[in-house]
Amino acid sequence: MPKPVGFRVTAACAFVLLMILISAPGGALIAGEPTPRPEPPRVVQVYPSDGMRYVPVDTAIHIVFSEPMDEASTIQSVNVSPALQLVYPSSWQFLNNKAIMVIVPAKPLRYSTTYKVVVSRSARDSQGVEMQQDYSWSFTTAAAPPSPVAVPVNGDFAAGNIAGWTWRHSEAAGSRAASWSVVADGERQHVLKISRPPTFEAGSCSLEQRIDAELPAFGLVFLSFDMRLDDYTLKEYTTGSTYPLKVVLTYLDRDGVEHSFVRSYYFHLPLEGGVDSFAEFVELGKWTSRSYNLSTLVPRPAFLKSLRFECSGWAWTALLDDVRLVW
C-alpha cells in the first residue's frame, strides 16, 4: 500500500511560495505589504544662498543635506566654478552627524566674481542612496575695497592744523589743560606737538579720527608714525593709564567683534612698580619711527573703526608726524 505524499507536497509548495514572496519587488515577506524604499538625500539649504550678492571673500560655503552623507562621494560630487584653492582634508568639514558640509577655501575668493556651485546626483547618503538629481546655485562676491589715498586724513598735519581729527582733554577744575600746536622741527615742516605744563593734578587728552574702512581679507596692513617724547616732568605712571603717549587702534574682526590694538611709550622706568606689557621704551628727545604689521593680529582686523592717540599724567610733551595706515 503506497504511503501518503500530501504532507511532502504541501511543504514543498509552501517553500516555493515563500521564495516567491521574498524575491518579489520591495522584498515583502507578506503579500500586499512591500518594504518602502529609502528617500534619496537632497540639499535643503545653502550659504551663500542662490543669487546672493556682496558676499565677503573670506566666506566658507555651507551645504545642508536632508540626512547624514557619505563623505567621500559627497566631496567628489561638488564642483565650484571658478575653481577654488582647496587643501584636503582641511578644506572639507562635516558637521551635525555629517548632514552639513562646509567648504573652507585655502585662500579667499576673488572679488567681484560670480561663483556657480553644483552638487551632482552622485552624492550618496550614509546608507549608500544617491541624490535623485543635481543641485546648483550661484552667488557673487563683493567688490574690492578702494585703496585709500590718505588714511588717516591729515596724518602728516600738512594742513597746519588738526583737520580730520577730534581733540579732547580732561583735567581738574582750575588745573592747567593740555594743548596742541602744529610746529616746524628741524627739517620737518609740520609736526603736531601735544603738551601740558607741569602741574600737581593728573589730566589727559586725546586726538582721534574715525577711519570706518573695510580691509581686504588677505595681504599686509600696517600702522606707522614718527614720534618724539620730551621731558615727562613727574617720573610716575599709573598702570594702563598715565603715559606720555599711547596709540589705540579700534577694529572689528570678521565676526563683527570689536578689538583694540594698544601701544604706549615711556623713556624711563617709574619710581615704583612696572609698566604694561604693551609699553615700549623710546629714547628721550629723539625722533623714532614706529611700524606695526596689523595683519598678524589674531583675530585679523576686517574693519578699522578709529585711530586714537592719548597723553596722560601730570605733564608731557609728545610730537607726532607722518601717521599712516596702509594696506
Structural features, described:
This protein is mainly beta and 327 residues long. Helix content is 8%, strand content 40%. The protein has 2 domains: 43-141, Sandwich (Immunoglobulin-like), CATH 2.60.40.3710; 166-326, Jelly Rolls, CATH 2.60.120. It has helices spanning 6-23, 71-77, and strands spanning 43-47, 52-55, 61-65, 78-81, 92-95, 100-103, 114-119, 135-141, 166-171, 179-185, 188-196, 203-214, 222-230, 245-252, 258-266, 279-281, 288-293, 303-313, 316-326. The chain has a 6-stranded mixed beta sheet, with no helix packed on it. The longest helix has 18 residues, at 6-23. Mean pLDDT is 86; it is low at 3-9 and 14-30.
In CATH terms, what is the architecture of the largest domain? Answer: Sandwich
Q: Taking strands numbered 1, 2, ... along the chain, how are they ordered across the largest sheet?
A: 9-12-18-14-15-16
Radius of gyration: 35 Å
Structural shape: elongated
Low-confidence stretches: 3-9, 14-30
Q: Tell me, rounded to a whole number, the average pLDDT.
A: 86
According to DSSP, the number of beta strands is: 19
- Fill in the CATH topology of the largest domain: Jelly Rolls
Attribute tags:
five-stranded antiparallel β-sheet, Jelly Rolls, 2 domains, six-stranded mixed β-sheet, 327 residues, elongated, Immunoglobulin-like, disordered N terminus, mainly beta
